[in-house]
Amino acid sequence: MALWITDECINCDVCEPECPNQAIAMGAEIYEIDPQRCTECVGHFDEPQCVALCPVSCIPVNPSFVETREQLLAKFHRLHPAGASTPPGASAGASPVPTSLHDPAAA
Ligand code: SF4
Ligand code: SF4
Question: Which ligand is nearest to the CA of 3?
Fold first, then answer.
């Protein structure tokens, strides 16, 4: 399934640059996810990066876009015919999630 952002979004700007599919953009009032581009990060990461980073946990699955992992992988290949490029904010060998946000001690 693609994900979607609820109206609990506080427009913190954290998720948009971390999406490997450029699926997140500012909408009329809050950030929105393009379901045609969201793969739940399949093909790039083991978990949805926006969900992992969102400070208010306002990114559930979109029940209007039920997709299997195979369909999500097919979407990934459609979006990235040459394969995955280095995701925004990630460097070779580095964790895609910034340590400061991943470390419970830093929370
Ligand atoms: S789950 Fe991944 S692909 Fe989908 S909007 Fe979030 S960061 Fe982008
Ligand atoms: S990380 Fe969460 S609160 Fe921040 S802009 Fe994205 S959806 Fe909104």
Answer: 1
